[in-house]
Give the backbone structure.
Amino acid sequence: MTDTVLAQREGDIATVVLNRPEKLNALTKSMWRRLGDLFLELDADDTLRCIVLRGAGEQAFAPGNDIAEFEQERANSEQAREYGKVMARTIEAIDGCRHPVVAQIHGICVGGGLEIAGLADLRICGESSRFGVPINRLGLVMAHAEIGALIRLVGEAVALEMLLEGRVFDAREALGKGLVTRVVPDEQVAAEAQATARRIAAGAPLVARWHKRFARRLRDPAPLTGAEIDEGFACFDTEDFRIGVRAFLAKTAPEFKGR
């Protein structure tokens, strides 16, 4: 059912909602597929400047994959391989999205939910939020596409601590581990996530996309090509650069065009 993942739009900010609150937004195979489809659609939208990613309600971002579905969809390695392909495609779609992504985290954010939130560029949670990857209690592993994203976020040592112990821990520990960007009182999570998205959207959108692309390119240890180095100066030929400089000198707020 596609309504278990929703996309809402307000101006140049989109909000993607994991919409299964009666199950704390537990993820199904169809939700993973729809989430990937949505991010590919949003990525192609030049009018977009930021995406907020959240779970429905205020009890959970997502507690991971719905274990009740496993008997039909993930009961053996062949089924798990197909399920894993869907997950890997979605992970790639979120991670590769050229627009900035802000995760708005209420409550529980563990397992597959943490994998998804961890792909956002900024992650804002409430003081009562809880995090972890307790899949060792299910006899499950994080496949390469999943564990790779976690290692990039927190490093190999912390990723292995989380996976080997399987502990669920609080927001302050998550902040210390680098899992989240900011911790605010629970009642301020939505407002802070929206304010963050609006600050991003107020900036030059081409610059935000370039910064994301540069950061991802630098994951690759291969030397930069001459063309890649030159791209670091392409902003000086944009209309947005001229708008930004004029606004700065005039002490006014810039209105960027994305050109």
